[in-house]
Amino acid sequence: MKNYLTIMLCLCFISAYSAKPKHQYVKIKTEQGECIIRLYNETPLHRDNFLKLTKKGTYNGLLFHRVIKEFMIQGGDPDSKNATKGSLLGEGSVGYTVPAEFNDSLFHKKGVLAAARDNNPEKASSGSQFYLVQGKKFTDEQLDAVETKRLKFKIPEWQRAIYKNLGGAPHLDRTYTVYGEVVKGIDMIDKIAILETDKNNRPQNDVKMTVTILKRREAKKLEKELKKQSKTIPDLKTA
Predict the structure, then answer these.
(1) What is the pLDDT of residue 230?
(2) pLDDT (tens digit per residue) in 180-221
(3) 37 near 50, Cβ under 8 Å?
(4) How far apart are CA 73 and CA 66, in angstroms?
(5) pTM score of the predicted model
(6) Are 120 and 199 in contact (CB under 8 A)?
């Protein structure tokens, strides 16, 4: 009987240790700090593409080349690596696009990761360029105006609560694919967003990035930390 219990405990331990994290996480590191991003499983095409480019080291050394306070910070242009000071960036490509993956529950709250794109009718995303939302807080009156002038649909009440309390960029909802969110180090966005920029919104001093994938053990540890935090933070969705 003791041997049986010992075996069962060992199997439970092995199962718990080997279990995969629920999500994939990436770390973006800059001279202005670093952040950890959870990639959404609801957007598998964008998730897998970002992981693929990260594994290849594509993002390492690229710039956050477009920065607009109270809106977003954009990076991932392949042409930004070793770009000369003052050169116009934002047109670079890895040679392909990613089909849009819109999801009504994934929206432009502060801290989300979303895909940049051009004006193609399919709203397909750039293969590499992305942005992190800083945004701003909105009043009910301002959200009403966004609904009428830009969105042509009603923002759910729980999302309105987040836009009022946390902030974001609601006018982009359901037109640009949102595929992740910062779960640690959101202040990196704020620090970059206030940097001095030129006429093309490029920071006067280059902001280079290094992007890595969190290993399984790191990801599992992070998920445990986030689970504990979620029990002490009010849920705006049910507010």
Answers:
(1) 80
(2) 999 999 999 999 999 999 999 999 999 999 999 999 999 999
(3) no
(4) 6
(5) 0.90
(6) no
**Domain boundaries, given as residue ranges, for the chain:** 21-238
Determine phi and psi for 17, rounding to 5 degrees. -70, -35
The neighbour count for residue 19, using CB atoms within 10 Å, is 10
User: Facing residues of 208 across strands?
Assistant: 63
Residue with tokens 């979303």: 114
Residue 13: per-residue pLDDT: 43
Q: Which class would CATH give 21-238?
A: mainly beta
Quick check: 135 and 70 in contact, CB under 8 A? yes
Enter the tokens of residue 200. 């093309």
Give whole-number Cα distances, 94 to 9, 43, 195, 215, in Å. 49, 20, 27, 26
Q: What is the pLDDT of residues 65-79, one digit of tens each?
A: 999 999 999 999 999
Where do we find the tokens 């945004």? Answer: 135
Tokens of residue 129, six digits: 């360029």
Nearest Cα to 134, choosing from 209, 202, 190, 206? 190
- Above 60 in pLDDT, residue 131? yes
Edge-first strand order for the sheet with 72-75 is 64-68, 72-75, 130-133, 112-115, 178-184, 33-39, 24-30, 210-213
